[in-house]
Amino acid sequence: MTAHTDPIPFDAGFAQDLHARYAQLRAAGPVHRLVNESGLPVWVVTRYDDARALLADPRLGKDAQTIFRLVMDRFAPGAERPDPSESEDGRFAGGGFDMHMLNMDPPDHSRLRKLVVKAFTARRIESLRPRIERISEELLTAMAGESEVDILDAFAFPLPIRVICELLGVDESRRDDFRRWTNQLLDDLDAEASVQAVGEMSKYLTELLAAKRENPGDDLLTALIEVSEDEDRLSESELISMVFLLLVAGHETTVNLIGNGILALLTNPDQFAALRANPDLVDGAVEEMLRFDGPLMHTTFRFTTEPITIGGTEIPAGEFVWAGLAAANRDPERFPDADSFDISRDTQGHLAFGHGIHFCLGAPLARMEAQIALRGLVAHFPDLTLATSAEELGRRNSSLIHGLRALPVRPAS
Ligand code: HEM
């Protein structure tokens, strides 16, 4: 059985109305064929059990070379392909920062993940706590006295980028550049801006690595260089791609977890009141924010290496697939009363950080940041309210990130 023969456009309208669209699809069937704004067809899996199984299924691949080839086959069949033997690692994908673990299958993925896990330890993450608290306090204090402020701009954006720069050991003066680059890379779909961002970032990261080799610091970048030199197994392009991945994967996601989470609190005053009355509910609140309105609509692309059947629908080999994370997390079969925001509910098993071998490496850091941010926010601004009606808030025009364009609030009522 094929769920839909004509692909459904995954366009800006879809992004604006994500949960309602996903709810319709989930009710209509477990798998749907969409077409993204570049015209690329992709199957989306909408139900919790199927999405979880898909993410642990070794018949789905992620390696960038195959993805690149499949895209070329669709858009430029017969065009000349780059020769992998001419690249530094004997591999070639689409250029830029492609040599990272989210673009790889085992055994390459396992090798890179093992290396970064050695550097990105629980102790290193925990050691960031006082700095994150200080940054959060600084930003919240600066908001006091304002009658109205865009809390994305004043708080949700600057916090994660400053934390990532601390983590990596990036100079404070380059923070704004980093923010611009990650924005240009993720916001659809200005190819020219993203090529420019890749060029500028590449130049900066190369310089930064050279500087860290000269002057090692107590930061993740230095640790990654050390790990790669000890084991002699991380090439320069893998190292640069890894840093790029940490930056891009760790920034906009955390921003929009905080942003969407604040919106959920402000539009569910009983839940806000419960958190205010008992700030120790914050850990559960963050998990519910991830489930209810997490920052990713779906996973990154996977492709089928052989035909696979999901919920009675066969997806042929060589097709792109997304696990619809936001759809799975609101599947009423898994989460009763899934469309209601309840910070005390059992959220165990939500898929906001993915599942399987590519499960988010930064989840402990993201959780810690969001918990600190929300605890601080509730303490500083117990009377926080929206400065506009929730219906007027627009969503970002991205096909991956589920976030708000702005979130105007009144810090004190
Ligand atoms: C992978 C979500 C924050 C680093 C992933 C994946 C998801 C995800 C869903 C898997 C994607 C897929 O399978 O296609 C999130 C969310 C975050 C967040 C919701 C914040 C709320 C972070 C942070 C970092 C980070 C702060 C690092 C500083 C990574 C890396 C991977 C990854 C390195 C790739 C892991 C691999 O391929 O093995 N993330 N992420 N993420 N994330 Fe996160």
TrEMBL record:
Keywords noted in UniProt: Cytoplasm, Heme, Iron, Metal-binding, Monooxygenase, Oxidoreductase
GO cellular component: cytoplasm
Name used for this protein in its record: Cytochrome P450
Species the sequence originates in: Saccharopolyspora terrae
Keyword Iron: yes
Family designation: Belongs to the cytochrome P450 family.
Coiled coil: none
GO terms of molecular function: heme binding; iron ion binding; monooxygenase activity; oxidoreductase activity, acting on paired donors, with incorporation or reduction of molecular oxygen
Pfam families: p450
Subcellular localization, as worded in the UniProt entry: Cytoplasm
